[in-house]
Amino acid sequence: MGRLMRFWHCALALVLGLPAEPALADESVALARLAEAVASHPDDPDLRFALARELAASGRDAEAAAQLETLVQRWPSYRAEAPLLLGRLHYELGRPEQAVPALERALALDPGSGAAHLLLGVCLEALGRAEEAEPHFEAAAESSPALRGEAWLLAGLSRLERGDREGGDDLLARVIADDPESESARSARLVLEGAGRRPGRLHLHAYGGVQYDSNVTLDSGDDFTGLPLEQSDVVFVWGSAVSFDVVREERGGISLGAVYDQSAHLELDDWDMQQFGGVLSSGLRLTERLAARLDGRVAYAWRDSDPYLLSGGLRPSLIATLGPRAGWLRGFAGTDWYEYDETPFTPALERDGFGWGGGLEHVVPIPRLRNAAFSLRGSWQRYESQARRDELLGFDGDYDHDAYGGAARVVVALPWRVSAEWGAAYQHEVYANPNLVDALTDEGIGTATPSRRRDHTFETRLRLSRPLTRFLDVEASAGYLDQLSNVDVYAYDRWVTGLIVRVQGP
């Protein structure tokens, strides 16, 4: 713990950025003139603030704090810089309990001040109020990209001191990923390297909410589908997840987990879903700027309490950190398999099969917007079903296809700790064989001219989320999807809006 405390104090010195030695004690001519001006014009807050700054620069912190106390009391709505400087001086003088109200005043005048959030967190930590300090470290990281590494470093050290090894390690790893060459990253790396190999802790997650879906059945309106006339419904959704870090090291780890999800419709009970599954997640830092990941899943779904789908997949990826301005680049691949619990009337309509593909994603921070990022993604996937040619009807599999897609996403922090995410995606699916369903919906198989199916899917989504407490978040979302197809049965559109509450453990 002694080594950890040394890191803590070094981090504080890095954040505060104060000179190691005060200026000469002799009062300069400019300082004397300022003092005379304040005495002659006691009702001028600008003169008093200028005097306080000069006193602080000269190492006369107690006198500077006294001037600022007078200023803040007489002009409580004066510039946020005044109570911010007062709070910093109180902390330097060993008075964190007096620094807290000054810094709270600074935040009331400027809620987006990353420096005020950071220093308030430091003072609360010094007073033993670590859980109150952490939200201010997070707010400092969101408000000021220049302070992000230092804020995450202090938050990570705070969690380690409270015994939250997993949470502390995650924050320190985030410091390294954000800017590997920074002083904060070097401090974080020293702490992690001294921790050694160890298992992680148990993580819990649960959610629940309600959604409105304008087209639960994905109905195109074609009579051939035989779907109910009523498409829209209210949907209640809930679920939980548990995971455990089997291995946790500074360079990587392995996590295993289990998930459960369920949805219940108000009217369309036939579309109620339940799903159980297991997940594997592993990562390895290859170099300072390069990391590899492997994620896997297996899931078994029921629809209306009947077996519906067994599926699984593996997704390897390689992530390269390009720097604080260029962001990071992720190359990914994947393979999936699907087994539906159904027996179609013809082997040409068999949906079971395998998919594989890959893509590239680039994420970059947005200049001059706090905690904001923009990403672009492109991908390709091929799906080969286990369908066989129906010799009687003369058709091969209906579901074999290639999919080409692209997506863009913007994430930005809004006032009042709200995080906004907007995304848009497009996918073009090219099917390999003449479509049997198209033939069955034509005038008759003997005279039909079935098409090779081509789909164009456009999707957009907006999500707003806000933490209510350390472990509780609320999320509102709205999304729209429009699928265009040359085979009318497969064309549909839908709106989905909802409100979800999420609970997560440490």
Could you explain how this protein is built, in words?
With 506 residues, this protein is an alpha+beta fold. It has 2 domains: 2-193, Alpha Horseshoe (Serine Threonine Protein Phosphatase 5, Tetratricopeptide repeat), CATH 1.25.40.10; 202-504, Beta Barrel (Porin), CATH 2.40.160.40. Helix content is 30%, strand content 40%. The chain contains 12 helices and 14 strands. Strands 1-2-3-4-5-6-7-8-9-10-11-12-13-14 form a 14-stranded antiparallel beta barrel. A hairpin with a 2-residue loop joins β2 (233-249) and β3 (252-265). α8 runs antiparallel to α9. The longest helix is centred in the N-terminal third of the chain and has 15 residues, at 2-16. The chain is elongated and about 105 Å long. It starts with a helix and ends with a strand. Residues 1-8, 13-26 and 443-447 have low confidence and may be disordered.
Which characteristics define this entry?
elongated; 12 helices; alpha+beta; Serine Threonine Protein Phosphatase 5, Tetratricopeptide repeat; 14-stranded antiparallel beta barrel; 2 domains; disordered N terminus; Porin; 506 residues
Shape: elongated
**Helix-strand pattern, N to C?**
HHHHHHHHHHHEEEEEEEEEEEHEEE
- Using only C-alpha atoms, the radius of gyration works out to 30 Å
Instruction: Give the spatial strand order of the biggest sheet.
Output: 1-2-3-4-5-6-7-8-9-10-11-12-13-14
Sheet of most strands: 14 strands, antiparallel, barrel
Number of domains: 2
Distance between the termini: 21 Å
CATH superfamily of the largest domain: monomeric porin ompg
**CATH fold label of the largest domain:** Porin
CATH class of the largest domain: Mainly Beta
**What is the architecture of the largest domain at the second tier of CATH?**
Beta Barrel
Unreliable stretches (pLDDT < 50, length at least 5) are 1-8, 13-26, 443-447
